[in-house]
Amino acid sequence: MTPEQKAEIEAARADPQPTLRAVSEGMEAHLYRAHEVLDHGFVRVIDYMGDDAAITQAARVSYGRGTKAVSNDEGLIRYLMRHWHSTPFEMCEIKLHVKLPVFVARQWIRHRTANVNEYSARYSILDREFYIPAEDDLAAQSVTNNQGRGEALTGEEAARVLDWLREDSTRAYDHYEAMISQEGQQGLARELARMNLPANIYTQWYWKVDLHNLFHFLRLRADAHAQMEIRVYAEAMCKIVADWVPLAYQAFEDYRLGGAQLSAKGVECVRRMLKGEEVTQETSGMSKGEWREFMGVVDA
């Protein structure tokens, strides 16, 4: 972030306001502060609503006497998470300011359950900032996953790729600036000139979402199979959410991030294995891909 942006954030944090609404002490520590991600990106909390108590309060209104068997808030939250009762989690919301590469934003925007307002390159000029991967993050195409990475690039090939990424990004932005310049020419409209910019240029947006849909986002994007460049944002957000709603996050971590879902065939295979039967892919009724994923869960 620029020194001006940092000064603005510190000024906001230095001027707290009294409130009668529910406050999460863990989240208060994150308000406005930018958590750096990648080489130029960040995530920062602009506002939030609710806490763990908001979840249980909504659940008890919804289920009434049915919750009397649940002895405490933690137990109730774990029950809700375990049985996929999502509505009470929608009572909490968060608004984030995110700076991210455009190609990451295009993955992120597929989660259509949030409110988004993005920096507009139609009337504003994008900064000369590009995501350039660390050499360790350059990898070849995976031979088993069409949308994943395989072995790391090394030596001259890795150096050549990094040089091209830097050169192409710089050249595209130079031409962008030249096209919109009005010195000695009319200057191309910004909404047209932006088409020349690479997908690794940084954009920014405000992203507001309820906790239920945020958990869905994190379950997919904090997963080891997610692309690294979006996963690091999800991991930064996980730390924020863990401080905001610790009971809900613990349940989410246990049942979603750390849990596993089995098909009916998978459950049947586990039962057969527990009885001492030797089960193979050929006798499981699963495809090779299903069996590989199943064994990834049950094979210690």
TrEMBL record:
Transmembrane segments: none annotated. Binds 4 FAD per tetramer. Each FAD binding site is formed by three monomers. Its cofactor is FAD. Pathway: Pyrimidine metabolism; dTTP biosynthesis. GO terms for biological process: methylation. SUPFAM superfamilies: Thymidylate synthase-complementing protein Thy1. It is an enzyme of class 2 (transferase). FAD binds at T87, R110, H111, R112, E118, D210, L211, H212, H216. DUMP binds at Q107, W108, I109, R110, E118, Y119, S120, A121, R122, R194, R221. Its EC number is 2.1.1.148. Homotetramer. PANTHER family: FLAVIN-DEPENDENT THYMIDYLATE SYNTHASE. Catalyzes the reductive methylation of 2'-deoxyuridine-5'-monophosphate (dUMP) to 2'-deoxythymidine-5'-monophosphate (dTMP) while utilizing 5,10-methylenetetrahydrofolate (mTHF) as the methyl donor, and NADPH and FADH(2) as the reductant. This is Flavin-dependent thymidylate synthase. It comes from Jannaschia ovalis. The gene is thyX.
